[in-house]
Fold this protein.
Amino acid sequence: MVLTLAILLLGLFAYAFLQTAAQSYRLRETERTLFDEVQGLRQQRAELEGLAAYLESDEYVEAFARQQFGLVKPGETLVVVDAPTTSGTARRPGERWWEALFDTEAPLTPTPDVSPGDLEEAELTLPADAPTDGSGDGPVSRNPSQEP
């Protein structure tokens, strides 16, 4: 009987110890989670305080007044650049910017049967409306050393 009672008490103490250990583990996990959350909130608070300080600064007020209201300092000149309106045709997927700009359908690729030597021998012609130097001999030629 004494042995049974001792085993029963030992079992009760083991159960209480395991319950206490499990509860201690859960409390440590909760403490770690809350500590991480507090660290995150402290960092967020520091960021928000920095943002609030910036929003109250003269630098922000000036930038906001310039951007939103178009205000300028005395002696400055306001320059407004209007972007051109879109032509209404959007670029197709895979289309290169120059294809949309120059309205070309086929991509610009070299001709495989033409060699560089053939290009040197080819005669070049200019459109009829190309500017000339007035002598009728050909297009305007510019010497870089004669540029203004």
